[in-house]
Amino acid sequence: MKTLLIVWQSMTGGTRQMAEAAAAGARGEDGVRVVVLPAPQAGPDDLLAADGCLFATPENLASMAGLMKDFFDRCYYPALGRIEGRPYAVMVCAGSDGSGAVRQIERICTGWRLKEAMPALIVCTHAQTPEAILAPKVIAEADLARCREAGAALAAGLALGVF
Fold this sequence. Notes:
Elements: E1 2-8, H1 14-26, E2 32-38, H2 44-49, E3 52-60, E4 63-64, H3 66-79, E5 87-94, H4 99-112, E6 115-116, E7 121-124, H5 130-134, H6 141-160
Parallel strand pairs: 1-2, 1-3, 3-5, 5-6, 5-7
Antiparallel strand pairs: 3-4
Helix pairs in contact: 1-6
């Protein structure tokens, strides 16, 4: 049995919806156990026990969310040298761009020597005003379908030993 760890952070619900959709897609794959944890609850032991990871974060001020960064800060050195070659994927819920958060996570994963399983999936909410940025998000079904497909593809790759 392979384990896919999905670590997410969300203040307004958008990234949570994306992570849950990815988990739903991944759960359709036999032979893969899916563990979904909010970033503050995830730790080095969860990361070390995973055969692959999906990291989901909002982009805040052109960066990953602070609590997602905290997860990486707490896990980086305990996992360094112990998880090389494992596949990972990134999902970002962004108001306009998302690339800053993707770059940050990719740099961390490069340091861990993880393998990118697929290009980052960025969902743009077009939230540009303070009110829109802070408002609860509802991710469109088409974007949730993309998240489900990404979760299913990552789980299938793990199950088949493709990564």
